[in-house]
Amino acid sequence: MGREHKKHKKDRKRHRSRSRSSTTDSDDERRFEAKGKEQKRHKKDKKRRRSPSRSSSADSSDEERRFDKNLEEQRQLKKAQLRRQKEEMKAKETPEEKKARRMAKKMQKDEKRRAAEAEDTLIPPELNYTNLNNPFNDTKLTTTFVWGKKLEKEGRSGLTQDQITKEASQRIRKNLTEAAEFKRIRDSRAAVKEDMEMMKRDADLRASQKTDSKEREFQLDQVKERTRIRIDQGRAKAIDLLSRYIRYAGEHFSPTASPDFELVNPIEYIRTTCKSIDDFEDLLEDISTYRELDGRERHEVW
Protein backbone atom coordinates (compact mmCIF):
# COMPACT_ATOMS: atom_id res chain seq x y z
CA MET A 1 0.00 0.00 0.00
CA GLY A 2 2.83 2.35 0.90
CA ARG A 3 4.63 1.50 -2.35
CA GLU A 4 1.58 2.29 -4.46
CA HIS A 5 1.16 5.58 -2.67
CA LYS A 6 4.80 6.55 -3.42
CA LYS A 7 4.41 5.51 -7.01
CA HIS A 8 1.27 7.58 -7.35
CA LYS A 9 3.16 10.58 -5.91
CA LYS A 10 5.97 10.22 -8.43
CA ASP A 11 3.48 10.04 -11.28
CA ARG A 12 1.85 13.27 -10.16
CA LYS A 13 5.23 15.04 -9.96
CA ARG A 14 6.11 13.91 -13.48
CA HIS A 15 2.74 15.12 -14.76
CA ARG A 16 3.23 18.50 -13.12
CA SER A 17 6.74 18.92 -14.54
CA ARG A 18 5.50 17.95 -18.01
CA SER A 19 2.61 20.41 -17.78
CA ARG A 20 4.98 23.14 -16.62
CA SER A 21 7.42 22.50 -19.47
CA SER A 22 4.57 22.48 -21.98
CA THR A 23 3.25 25.78 -20.62
CA THR A 24 6.72 27.37 -20.77
CA ASP A 25 7.14 26.17 -24.34
CA SER A 26 3.79 27.59 -25.31
CA ASP A 27 4.66 30.88 -23.58
CA ASP A 28 7.97 31.07 -25.46
CA GLU A 29 6.20 30.43 -28.73
CA ARG A 30 3.70 33.17 -28.02
CA ARG A 31 6.47 35.63 -27.09
CA PHE A 32 8.41 34.78 -30.27
CA GLU A 33 5.30 35.26 -32.41
CA ALA A 34 4.55 38.61 -30.72
CA LYS A 35 8.16 39.73 -31.24
CA GLY A 36 7.99 38.79 -34.93
CA LYS A 37 4.76 40.71 -35.36
CA GLU A 38 6.28 43.73 -33.64
CA GLN A 39 9.33 43.65 -35.94
CA LYS A 40 7.10 43.44 -39.01
CA ARG A 41 5.10 46.41 -37.73
CA HIS A 42 8.34 48.42 -37.26
CA LYS A 43 9.47 47.58 -40.79
CA LYS A 44 6.16 48.76 -42.21
CA ASP A 45 6.42 52.00 -40.24
CA LYS A 46 9.98 52.58 -41.56
CA LYS A 47 8.81 52.01 -45.11
CA ARG A 48 6.01 54.50 -44.58
CA ARG A 49 8.51 57.06 -43.22
CA ARG A 50 10.98 56.53 -46.08
CA SER A 51 8.47 56.87 -48.85
CA PRO A 52 7.82 60.66 -48.33
CA SER A 53 11.58 61.45 -48.25
CA ARG A 54 12.11 59.51 -51.46
CA SER A 55 9.27 61.37 -53.10
CA SER A 56 10.64 64.74 -51.92
CA SER A 57 14.13 63.94 -53.25
CA ALA A 58 12.60 62.91 -56.56
CA ASP A 59 10.64 66.18 -56.68
CA SER A 60 13.78 68.23 -55.94
CA SER A 61 15.75 66.43 -58.66
CA ASP A 62 12.90 67.11 -61.11
CA GLU A 63 12.95 70.79 -60.18
CA GLU A 64 16.72 70.96 -60.69
CA ARG A 65 16.39 69.33 -64.10
CA ARG A 66 13.65 71.81 -65.07
CA PHE A 67 15.78 74.74 -63.84
CA ASP A 68 18.82 73.54 -65.78
CA LYS A 69 16.68 73.08 -68.87
CA ASN A 70 15.23 76.59 -68.59
CA LEU A 71 18.69 78.05 -68.02
CA GLU A 72 20.07 76.28 -71.07
CA GLU A 73 17.14 77.52 -73.16
CA GLN A 74 17.77 81.10 -72.03
CA ARG A 75 21.44 80.77 -72.93
CA GLN A 76 20.60 79.47 -76.36
CA LEU A 77 18.10 82.30 -76.90
CA LYS A 78 20.70 84.87 -75.84
CA LYS A 79 23.30 83.36 -78.16
CA ALA A 80 20.83 83.38 -81.04
CA GLN A 81 19.93 87.00 -80.31
CA LEU A 82 23.59 88.05 -80.24
CA ARG A 83 24.19 86.14 -83.46
CA ARG A 84 21.29 87.95 -85.17
CA GLN A 85 22.51 91.32 -83.94
CA LYS A 86 26.00 90.57 -85.22
CA GLU A 87 24.66 89.53 -88.62
CA GLU A 88 22.51 92.67 -88.85
CA MET A 89 25.50 94.83 -87.93
CA LYS A 90 27.63 93.13 -90.57
CA ALA A 91 24.92 93.64 -93.17
CA LYS A 92 24.65 97.37 -92.42
CA GLU A 93 28.36 98.21 -92.06
CA THR A 94 30.31 100.05 -94.76
CA PRO A 95 33.48 98.68 -96.40
CA GLU A 96 35.62 100.97 -94.22
CA GLU A 97 33.91 99.75 -91.05
CA LYS A 98 34.30 96.15 -92.21
CA LYS A 99 38.01 96.68 -92.80
CA ALA A 100 38.46 98.33 -89.39
CA ARG A 101 36.57 95.50 -87.68
CA ARG A 102 38.74 92.88 -89.34
CA MET A 103 41.91 94.76 -88.43
CA ALA A 104 40.80 95.01 -84.79
CA LYS A 105 39.98 91.31 -84.75
CA LYS A 106 43.37 90.48 -86.23
CA MET A 107 45.15 92.66 -83.67
CA GLN A 108 43.22 90.96 -80.88
CA LYS A 109 44.26 87.54 -82.18
CA ASP A 110 47.89 88.63 -82.44
CA GLU A 111 47.78 89.95 -78.89
CA LYS A 112 46.39 86.65 -77.62
CA ARG A 113 49.03 84.73 -79.55
CA ARG A 114 51.84 86.87 -78.15
CA ALA A 115 50.45 86.46 -74.63
CA ALA A 116 50.34 82.69 -75.09
CA GLU A 117 53.90 82.66 -76.42
CA ALA A 118 55.09 84.80 -73.52
CA GLU A 119 53.40 82.39 -71.12
CA ASP A 120 55.21 79.44 -72.66
CA THR A 121 58.65 81.04 -72.92
CA LEU A 122 61.19 80.78 -70.14
CA ILE A 123 62.52 84.35 -70.30
CA PRO A 124 59.92 87.04 -69.53
CA PRO A 125 59.55 89.74 -72.21
CA GLU A 126 60.54 92.54 -69.81
CA LEU A 127 64.09 91.15 -69.58
CA ASN A 128 64.55 91.35 -73.35
CA TYR A 129 67.29 88.69 -73.35
CA THR A 130 68.11 86.21 -76.13
CA ASN A 131 70.66 83.47 -76.61
CA LEU A 132 72.89 85.89 -78.53
CA ASN A 133 72.16 89.04 -76.53
CA ASN A 134 72.47 88.61 -72.76
CA PRO A 135 74.95 89.82 -70.13
CA PHE A 136 75.92 86.24 -69.22
CA ASN A 137 77.28 85.22 -72.66
CA ASP A 138 75.09 82.12 -72.43
CA THR A 139 74.12 80.68 -75.80
CA LYS A 140 71.58 78.36 -74.14
CA LEU A 141 69.87 80.96 -72.00
CA THR A 142 66.36 80.25 -73.27
CA THR A 143 66.81 76.49 -72.81
CA THR A 144 65.45 75.17 -69.54
CA PHE A 145 68.07 73.59 -67.28
CA VAL A 146 66.90 70.22 -65.94
CA TRP A 147 68.38 69.22 -62.60
CA GLY A 148 67.70 65.52 -62.79
CA LYS A 149 69.15 64.54 -59.42
CA LYS A 150 67.12 67.16 -57.59
CA LEU A 151 63.89 66.15 -59.33
CA GLU A 152 64.61 62.51 -58.55
CA LYS A 153 65.27 63.35 -54.91
CA GLU A 154 62.00 65.29 -54.70
CA GLY A 155 60.10 62.46 -56.35
CA ARG A 156 59.29 64.49 -59.45
CA SER A 157 61.38 62.72 -62.01
CA GLY A 158 58.27 61.97 -64.07
CA LEU A 159 57.73 65.61 -65.08
CA THR A 160 57.77 66.39 -68.77
CA GLN A 161 59.92 69.06 -70.40
CA ASP A 162 56.93 71.36 -70.86
CA GLN A 163 56.00 71.09 -67.19
CA ILE A 164 59.57 71.86 -66.11
CA THR A 165 59.71 74.86 -68.47
CA LYS A 166 56.39 76.17 -67.17
CA GLU A 167 57.49 75.86 -63.53
CA ALA A 168 60.78 77.62 -64.28
CA SER A 169 58.95 80.43 -66.07
CA GLN A 170 56.53 80.85 -63.16
CA ARG A 171 59.43 80.93 -60.71
CA ILE A 172 61.22 83.64 -62.72
CA ARG A 173 58.03 85.70 -62.93
CA LYS A 174 57.54 85.37 -59.19
CA ASN A 175 61.09 86.59 -58.57
CA LEU A 176 60.55 89.53 -60.92
CA THR A 177 57.30 90.41 -59.17
CA GLU A 178 59.02 90.33 -55.79
CA ALA A 179 61.87 92.47 -57.13
CA ALA A 180 59.37 94.99 -58.50
CA GLU A 181 57.60 95.06 -55.13
CA PHE A 182 60.90 95.63 -53.31
CA LYS A 183 61.73 98.43 -55.75
CA ARG A 184 58.33 100.02 -55.16
CA ILE A 185 58.83 99.88 -51.37
CA ARG A 186 62.35 101.31 -51.72
CA ASP A 187 61.12 104.14 -53.94
CA SER A 188 58.27 104.92 -51.55
CA ARG A 189 60.69 105.05 -48.63
CA ALA A 190 63.02 107.31 -50.63
CA ALA A 191 60.06 109.57 -51.47
CA VAL A 192 59.04 109.73 -47.80
CA LYS A 193 62.62 110.52 -46.82
CA GLU A 194 62.81 113.25 -49.45
CA ASP A 195 59.53 114.73 -48.22
CA MET A 196 60.81 114.73 -44.65
CA GLU A 197 64.02 116.45 -45.73
CA MET A 198 62.04 119.03 -47.69
CA MET A 199 59.82 119.71 -44.68
CA LYS A 200 62.93 120.09 -42.53
CA ARG A 201 64.46 122.52 -45.03
CA ASP A 202 61.23 124.53 -45.08
CA ALA A 203 61.17 124.64 -41.30
CA ASP A 204 64.82 125.71 -41.22
CA LEU A 205 64.11 128.35 -43.86
CA ARG A 206 61.17 129.73 -41.89
CA ALA A 207 63.27 129.74 -38.74
CA SER A 208 66.12 131.53 -40.52
CA GLN A 209 63.70 134.05 -42.01
CA LYS A 210 62.28 134.71 -38.58
CA THR A 211 65.80 135.09 -37.20
CA ASP A 212 66.74 137.43 -40.05
CA SER A 213 63.65 139.55 -39.48
CA LYS A 214 64.42 139.80 -35.77
CA GLU A 215 68.00 140.73 -36.57
CA ARG A 216 66.84 143.42 -39.01
CA GLU A 217 64.46 144.80 -36.41
CA PHE A 218 67.27 144.91 -33.87
CA GLN A 219 69.61 146.68 -36.29
CA LEU A 220 66.87 149.15 -37.25
CA ASP A 221 66.22 149.88 -33.59
CA GLN A 222 69.93 150.49 -33.10
CA VAL A 223 70.04 152.86 -36.08
CA LYS A 224 67.01 154.75 -34.77
CA GLU A 225 68.58 154.99 -31.34
CA ARG A 226 71.80 156.40 -32.79
CA THR A 227 69.73 158.89 -34.80
CA ARG A 228 67.91 160.03 -31.66
CA ILE A 229 71.15 160.42 -29.75
CA ARG A 230 72.78 162.51 -32.49
CA ILE A 231 69.70 164.74 -32.78
CA ASP A 232 69.60 165.25 -29.00
CA GLN A 233 73.30 166.13 -28.91
CA GLY A 234 72.94 168.65 -31.78
CA ARG A 235 75.16 166.81 -34.23
CA ALA A 236 72.43 165.38 -36.48
CA LYS A 237 73.31 164.17 -39.91
CA ALA A 238 71.15 164.41 -43.04
CA ILE A 239 69.96 160.80 -42.71
CA ASP A 240 68.85 161.45 -39.12
CA LEU A 241 66.64 164.39 -40.12
CA LEU A 242 65.25 162.51 -43.13
CA SER A 243 64.40 159.41 -41.09
CA ARG A 244 62.68 161.57 -38.45
CA TYR A 245 60.70 163.33 -41.15
CA ILE A 246 59.64 159.97 -42.70
CA ARG A 247 58.83 158.35 -39.37
CA TYR A 248 56.67 161.33 -38.39
CA ALA A 249 54.25 160.42 -41.20
CA GLY A 250 54.29 156.73 -40.25
CA GLU A 251 51.65 154.85 -38.31
CA HIS A 252 53.96 153.79 -35.49
CA PHE A 253 55.37 157.24 -34.76
CA SER A 254 54.75 158.39 -31.20
CA PRO A 255 54.93 162.20 -30.68
CA THR A 256 55.54 161.73 -26.96
CA ALA A 257 58.64 159.66 -27.64
CA SER A 258 60.51 162.62 -29.25
CA PRO A 259 60.55 166.36 -28.64
CA ASP A 260 58.73 168.83 -30.85
CA PHE A 261 60.44 169.88 -34.04
CA GLU A 262 59.64 171.98 -37.05
CA LEU A 263 58.86 170.20 -40.30
CA VAL A 264 61.04 171.48 -43.08
CA ASN A 265 61.36 170.45 -46.69
CA PRO A 266 63.72 167.42 -46.79
CA ILE A 267 65.78 169.13 -49.50
CA GLU A 268 66.62 171.84 -47.00
CA TYR A 269 67.94 169.17 -44.63
CA ILE A 270 70.27 167.94 -47.33
CA ARG A 271 71.46 171.44 -48.25
CA THR A 272 72.20 172.43 -44.68
CA THR A 273 73.91 169.20 -43.59
CA CYS A 274 75.72 167.98 -46.71
CA LYS A 275 78.62 170.36 -47.26
CA SER A 276 80.95 168.08 -49.21
CA ILE A 277 81.01 165.10 -51.54
CA ASP A 278 81.88 162.81 -48.63
CA ASP A 279 78.71 163.92 -46.86
CA PHE A 280 76.64 163.05 -49.93
CA GLU A 281 78.34 159.63 -50.21
CA ASP A 282 77.65 158.97 -46.53
CA LEU A 283 74.02 159.95 -47.09
CA LEU A 284 73.68 157.51 -49.98
CA GLU A 285 75.16 154.68 -47.88
CA ASP A 286 72.83 155.51 -44.99
CA ILE A 287 69.81 155.56 -47.33
CA SER A 288 70.75 152.11 -48.72
CA THR A 289 71.07 150.84 -45.15
CA TYR A 290 67.61 152.18 -44.25
CA ARG A 291 66.11 150.69 -47.42
CA GLU A 292 67.54 147.31 -46.51
CA LEU A 293 66.37 147.44 -42.91
CA ASP A 294 62.92 148.93 -43.52
CA GLY A 295 62.17 146.39 -46.23
CA ARG A 296 59.24 147.12 -48.50
CA GLU A 297 57.39 149.25 -46.00
CA ARG A 298 59.12 152.56 -46.99
CA HIS A 299 61.02 151.35 -50.04
CA GLU A 300 59.39 153.86 -52.38
CA VAL A 301 59.99 156.76 -49.97
CA TRP A 302 63.68 156.05 -49.69
TrEMBL record:
Domain Splicing factor cactin central: 203-300
Superkingdom: Eukaryota
Basic residues: bias regions: 1-19, 38-52
Alphabetized Pfam families for the sequence: Cactin_mid
Biased composition annotated in UniProt, kind: Basic and acidic residues: 28-37, 63-76, 84-99, 107-117
Alphabetized InterPro entries for the sequence: Cactin_central
Region Disordered, annotated ranges: 1-135
Protein name in UniProt: Splicing factor cactin central domain-containing protein
Organism of origin: Caenorhabditis briggsae
Phylogenetic lineage: Eukaryota, Metazoa, Ecdysozoa, Nematoda, Chromadorea
